[in-house]
Amino acid sequence: MKLACQKHLFNLDPDLHYLNTAYKSPLLKSAEEAAIKSLTRSRNPQLILPTDFFTESKEVRNLFGELLHVSGQNIAIIPSTSYGFSTIFLNIKGKPKGNAITVGEEFPSGYFALKKWSEEHEQNLVIVKGNKDLIQQGSDWNERILAAINNDTSVVCMSAIHWATGLQYDLKAIGQKCKSVGAKFLIDGAQTIGALNVDVQACHIDALICATYKCLYGPYSMALMYVDDGFFGGEALEEAWMNREGAEEFSSLSDYNESYMPAARRYNVGQTSNFILTPILLQGLKQIKEWGIDNIQDYCKSLAIPFIAQMKNHGYQFEEEPYICYHLFSVKIKDGKSALLQERLQANNCKLSQRGDYLRISLSVFNNESDLAALSEALIESL
Ligand SMILES: Cc1ncc(COP(=O)(O)O)c(C=O)c1O
Q1: What domains does the chain contain, in order, with CATH numbers?
Q2: What is the sign, positive or negative, of the torsion defined by CA atoms of 140, 142, 144, 147?
Q3: Per the count of CB atoms within 10 A, which of 24, 192, 370, 372 is most buried?
């Protein structure tokens, strides 16, 4: 199915060219309505039934599981990426004198968690950096990541695509190499899941953590975590009552059932139900399912391809397939051009972020040709 522009489903400022879902997605109209409905329901708490503490969160786990091609049993609801990594690292043992690998300029939530764990477990932290002298870094970078993984590797922890440039890593090859040496493969999916198809089992991913306020059109302060079955017996960061068997029976909670809810549910954050924010996430996940992940990526590609071709004619350089993805890609800004570019972007009402030397362009189904025309104009004028 070829998607048409979905701007009508959002309350975006019509005069603005918002090219920054990688910063935060706008709110779906349906999500806004669902959250307001939930907020007003709280005027009368008797309307919140004991079953409501469990039903929406179950739906969220199942829908996110579908996105990753796994069961909702493998999904936990958490508040942030950092919470997820703390949970996962609590449950990983290092190999004696092993190494832990990440990529250069990895997002800090994963980087600091890996660094702390490496120090505590006497692991050598290896950072595989991209070669910034190359115009297209993807092939070289992926090869060097694969070469760095060896029999001493305990963990590889990285984002599915680079958060600042959108460079796409070869998750299948990296996951296969991790499996062959017995290393855990941990992924930050915040800039990826919801816009790009990732099959966690095919990529041998052990855990994937995803903030919901970007590609999932969810709220700030919620995140989702996939864990492989191997984590089902692990230690949770906290002892939430809702994660114990029989928690649905509010009258007998202090009978203290020692058993956890099955599978990944022991890792759910306390107050999992989050009545105001969960409806936002649920609408986002339902909408993504209706659009279809591949259709979302194809829609972004149909906007990106003519834009990239035009910009290349003006001397701008981009990553190439299979290392570029079209919902988030970047263009390198020549030294000294940044201030002029920012001025032109502002004049053209374009909202997007610069990360390091790169202008990060993130597209979504609400963007259209006029957004990219305004961006092209700013980029050309700033030359
Ligand atoms: C790759 C990536 N991971 C995670 C986050 C958010 O981290 P946290 O959920 O710990 O606030 C961001 C935010 O920009 C991100 O880009």
Answers
A1: 7-27+293-381 (3.90.1150.10), 45-290 (3.40.640.10)
A2: negative
A3: 192
